[in-house]
Amino acid sequence: MPQKAYIFLTTGFEEIEAICVIDILRRAGIEVKAIACPAFKKVIGAHDIEISTDAILDRTDFSDGDMLILPGGQPGTDNLNLQKKLKKLIQTYHDQNKYIAAICAAPLIFGEMGLLKGKRATCYPGYEGLLLGAEFAGNERVVVDGNIITSKGVGTAIEFSLKLVELLVGEKTAETLKKKMIVK
User: Fold this and answer.
1) Would you tell me which of 93, 148, 152, 166 could form a disulfide with 98, CB atoms 3.0–4.6 Å apart?
2) Residues of the chain under the 70 pLDDT cut
3) Residues 6 or more apart from 140 whose CB is under 8 A from it?
4) Domain range 4-179, CATH class
5) 18 near 106, Cβ under 8 Å?
């Protein structure tokens, strides 16, 4: 059975961080579902790019997933942070030791939820103070600590995506994709 990931989109999400993740994970054979929160089937990103989603947060069963992914961007991160059902889902995945991943400003959601206490993490420059309880990982572009994956932003989206592939389906698949996509 293929691995399954859910990525959450809301008004103002960072398009590159979302589309890059969806594209690379699907290239790896991972089933990825773009989830709208709240209930808008089409979501407009921070740079006015409209994306059609696969499902809506309130009408989706996430029990079969292996990973939850939060793209950053503003006001996307702030809008995701308002979603109580999403936060409950993140907590459930965390408690079940399933992967939770966030890039750019979005790791602040994990910080505010208390999930980063004693964990290494990174984020977009300027948001470090919102990674409550975390050990900030300095210049590291992608950080994995247990089941939590964080990354800095648009410029690290490919590395972030390849790390998610590695965690879900293995290093060999990630390396093959890296070569095919001509990533250094």
Assistant:
1) 93
2) 1
3) 120, 122
4) alpha beta
5) no
Tell me how far apart the alpha carbons of residues 171 and 129 are, in angstroms, rounded to a whole number.
32
* Tokens representing residue 165 in the block: 């592939």
Rounded CA-CA distance 137/120 in Å is: 6
pLDDT (tens digit per residue) in 166-178? 999 999 999 999 9
The answer to whether 109 and 81 are in contact (CB under 8 A) is yes
Q: Spell out the domain ranges in the chain.
A: 4-179
Query: By CB neighbour count within 10 A (0-12 exposed, 13-18 middle, 19+ buried), where does 50 fall?
Result: exposed
pTM of the predicted structure, to 2 decimals: 0.97
